[in-house]
Amino acid sequence: MEFKLTKPITPAPIEFNAAELRQELEPKLAYYQTLVVTPDSIRDAKDDRAKLRKLRDELDLRRKKVKREYLAPLESFEAEVKSITEMIDAPIAAIDEQIKAYEEQARADKRAALKAHFDAAMDAVSVPIDFDKILPPKWGNKTEKTETLCEHIDNEIRRICKDLVELERLYSGSPHWTAVRECYMQGYDRGAALAYAATLMQAEQEPVVVEGEDEPRITGAFRVTGTRAQIVALRNFMKSRGLEFEVIR
Question: Domain segments of the chain: what residues?
Answer without folding.
Answer: 20-116, 125-204+226-240
